[in-house]
From TrEMBL:
Region (Disordered): 50-92
SUPFAM superfamilies for this protein: CoA-transferase family III (CaiB/BaiF)
Keyword terms: Transferase
Source organism: Phenylobacterium glaciei
Protein name: CoA transferase
Keyword Transferase on entry: yes
């Protein structure tokens, strides 16, 4: 549905009707921004094959139980099952 109008037109229409909205842009400019770095919204973890992996941190900090990103998921050695294969979604 959103492809039927340009982004600017949707924003104007939604905002005129009191819908809180904002454009979504590419990840890179947001991720490289000063606000993200200052707010500790970015974390870098080391991957054994890929090297440093930059990713968003936990967005909220609770005083008693603060969350954090401590490790990356381990690489899977399992063979993907039928649901992970694109052909599994085709009708036969």
């Amino acid at each position: 549905m959103f492809k039927t109008r340009p982004r600017a037109e949707w924003l104007e229409l939604l905002q005129a009707n009191g819908v809180p909205c904002a454009p979504v842009g590419p990840r890179e400019p947001w991720f490289a921004g000063d606000a993200v770095a200052a707010g500790e919204a970015r974390v870098t973890l080391e991957h054994p094959e890929l090297g440093p992996v930059h990713m968003p941190n936990v967005p909220s900090r609770l005083s008693v139980t603060p969350g954090s990103v401590r490790h990356l998921a381990k690489p899977s050695t399992a063979t993907p099952g039928p649901s992970a294969r694109p052909s599994a979604h085709r009708r036969q």
